[in-house]
Amino acid sequence: MMLFELLKAFLFGVVEGITEWLPISSTGHMILLDQFVQLDVSKDFYSMFEVVIQLGAILAVVVIYWHKIWPFHQADKNAHAQGIWRYVDKNIMIMWLKIFIACLPAGLIGVAFNDTFERLFYNPTCVAIALIVFGIAFILIEDIHKNKQPKITSIAELSYYTVVLIGFFQLIAAVFPGTSRSGATIVGALILGVSRTVATEFTFFLAIPVMFGAALFKLVKFGFSFTPLEIWILVVGLVTAFITSIIAIKFLMQYIKKHTFKAFGWYRIILGLLVIAYFWFVK
Question: Is 68 exposed, middle or buried (0-12, 13-18, 19+ CB in 10 A)?
Answer without folding.
Answer: middle
